[in-house]
Amino acid sequence: MVDFGPVSHFLGMVITRKEQNRQIYVSQQGYIDRVLEMFAMTECKPVATPMNMDKPRPSIGEDPSCDRDLYLKLSGSLCWIGIGTRPDMSFAVSYLGRFNADPSLIHWTGAKRVLRYLKGTKHLKLSLGGGLQESGELKEGFKLSGYVDSDFAGAANSLKSTTGYVLLLRSGRVQL
């Protein structure tokens, strides 16, 4: 085994450290730029949200279909970005992934909207750590916070709801 020092790049992610406040930042800006270029969206107009309020519905017989292989390629690229460093777009990517078997032009447009969102927010980074003073002492106690969101009866066919939650112990996510 060879030690090359602290990691700075890993699987398309750029990792930077702030030693003074013990924080690590993870970004995929370069990968996002490559995905935008791959799907000819480098000159697109950015949007503020990854999905419209009126989400794409399941396709019906008369909806024009799109290239399934291209849709799957875009869906996989967006999934990698969402899993790696961008939990803010996880719902949109998960929702659009429901249509991987038979995507239509409506779903393709929804996936391109996520690209437009990424175009305007590609500078965002995932921040990990922090909360310790220089001496290593805790600034505050072990504070547990929780956040939840839901989409009540959002699936048009089955009226099933989608719920997501995250628990944070101080500034770190708790995996359940």
Enumerate the strands of the largest sheet in spatial order, edge to edge or round the barrel. 1-2-3-4
Structural class: alpha+beta
Write down how many β-strands occur, each being a DSSP E stretch of 2 or more residues: 7
Question: Which bin fits the share of residues in helices?
Answer: 25-40%
Report on the biggest sheet.
Answer: 4 strands, antiparallel
- Based on Cα principal axes, name the global outline: globular
Description:
The protein has about 180 residues and is α+β, with helices and mostly antiparallel strands. It has two domains: about 10-140, no CATH class; about 140-175, no CATH class. It has four helices and seven strands; from the N terminus they run βββααααββββ. The chain has helices spanning about 30-40, 70-85, 90-95, 105-120, and strands at about 10, 15-20, 25, 125-130, 145-150, 160-170, 170-175. The strands form two sheets. It has a four-stranded antiparallel sheet with strand order 1-2-3-4. α2 (about 70-85) packs antiparallel against α3 and α2 runs parallel beside α4. The protein starts with 8 loop residues before the first strand and ends with a strand.
Task: Describe this protein with a few key phrases.
single chain, 176 residues, alpha+beta, 2 domains, four-stranded antiparallel β-sheet, 4 helices, 7 strands, 30% helix, 20% strand, globular
Please outline what is shown here.
The chain is an alpha+beta fold and 176 residues long. Helix content is 30%, strand content 20%. It has helices spanning 29-38, 68-84, 90-97, 105-121, and strands at 9-10, 13-18, 23-27, 126-129, 144-151, 162-169, 172-174.
